[in-house]
Known about the structure:
It is built from 23 helices and four strands. By secondary structure, the protein is mostly helical. The strands form two sheets. Strands 1-4 form a two-stranded antiparallel ribbon. A two-stranded antiparallel ribbon has the order 2-3. Strand 2 and strand 3 (229-230) form a beta hairpin. Helix 5 packs antiparallel against helix 16 (416-446).
Amino acid sequence: MAAPTAPPPAAAPTDVEAAWLRDTYKPDAPNLTVRAAIGGMLIGAVMCLSNLYVFFKTGWSMGVTLTACILAFASFQGLKAIGLVKKPFGPLENNALTTVASGAGYMTGGGNMAAYGALLMVLSAQPALMQRPSTLALIAWFGAIAALGVFAAIPIKRQLINQDGLAFPTGTATAETIDSLHSAAAGGGTQKALALAVAAGVGALVAVARDALKLIPATLPMPIKLAGYELGKWTIALKTEVLLIGAGALMSFRTGWSMLLGAIVTYGVIAPLLIEHHEVATVSYKAIVNWTLWPGAGILVGSGITSFLLDWKSLKRAFAGMARLGRRGADASGIGAIEAPEWWFPAGYLALGPIIVALMAILFDIPVWAAVIALPLSVVMGFIAARVTGETDTTPTKALGPVTQMTFGALAPGNLPGNIMSANVTGGVGLHAADLLTTLKTGWLLGAKPRHQVYAQLLGVLAGAAIIVPAFNAIIPDPSVLGSDAWPAPSCLVWSGVSAIVSNGLGGLSSAAQTAMVVGLALGIVMAIVDKLAPPTVRTFLPSPAGVGIAMVIPASNSIAMFLGAAIAALMRRYTRAASDRYVVPVASGLIAGESLAGIAIAMLIAGGVIAK
């Protein structure tokens, strides 16, 4: 029997990179200019505020890069039209601006606001645990974690993007969008920008009419009764928040209908049974979600960790990549002059590591020895998160956060604030490493300078850190509203719940809630396994564990609205593909940005007593 033929060897990195330098790289095109940096920080601030609002409403952090590049194009086109800008705004300049904006806009993700909100919820209930950290201290905390994530991406960039050619789907889509916006032949850039602007105006008008002028209700009345109560009491209603429809349009239809299914089961079946069996005393969102949180968290954690472990090939490749760090020989291709040097990572680690350890000890009473263990663990998790994001477009914070929480729970049991914020380190490092690599993928496809994008990402995270904490304090001055119908904050509920379990055990839960959590955990594991094994044609008809799990910790009205958005987008993709490609992302992003920014302004005016609540 003939021996099997060996596969051809992979092209050497220098060969791949030499071809890129020859065919794609544009050395003379402007990248990170002063106006791109300033514009990126301004747009990043807008996206950061928008994401903050959306996150505490829905539990999702919306994508930044696609919206940012359209906003950037529209802004410079407008400035050019009125004569304030003379020099053309090119695609690589847009890419650099978008990188800055992404670094700022994603400060809500990766567990940052989930952890901060969960921490404040815990401290509201148990103020004796610790003093609430100051604004400046938290800005330093979030900035240091995010910057460490940026540095962690540097040594693995050339392996994941240049050599392995991982897809990073959002990065690829952003490159295609930027190319389309700036291509004279495409002619669709102005239409996308106009669609985003009109949708933003609609979103803002709805928010003002509803929240400031009280001309329209927050929910449309539904007099139908369930178990003796109107549907609205069970949170089953149609909301007039168009940002929820926009958020749904940006997710897959599978996630949208899974959320609708989860809402029906949670509020139409489980909640009435809880009332009937006296597990819940009152028919209200907060009372119901305090129970359904446990099976919902079980599904999210079980499916997240299982999916993560089932992707063992990605894990193997991630660890293999880490083993190769520092082994690259002299660079013969000339790309070293534009790539960020790999030594920046250990330098950044040595500079930021002591700061993060000190902040963990001072702010959250985390023992120094435990913080020293948590820090390298977070970097390892960041490497893994980057590989998984490149292959799946999903950063696995729902898996990495609980893993860190369980690890810290064993190291320092009973320290609830420390448990939450140690997981924040892992989530923050993982997200910002993955985010930089996503934007670097965009730059790789367009021919940008990678080193400029590292500078851009660092500018973005600094701007985002300076904005996020003061903005949160202004929008939500009273943390006790978190977990309410107005501010559901589902991710905060999950993080605080998981931390309570791993730190203090199950003693505080009823036996029914404990059973429900175990059932949810088992269901999440089974759903993830079936999802992994099912062929793609079948997977479309299987409920998404993330969609079902998140639906159990947000009001049913939110899930209904997001399902409507996903359904509209799916119908457009099916029957009007050209219009879908041109308008779905800008219109959905505009609705989100317009309503969220107007909502933030109104919330601040209400907090300041200018507008009646």
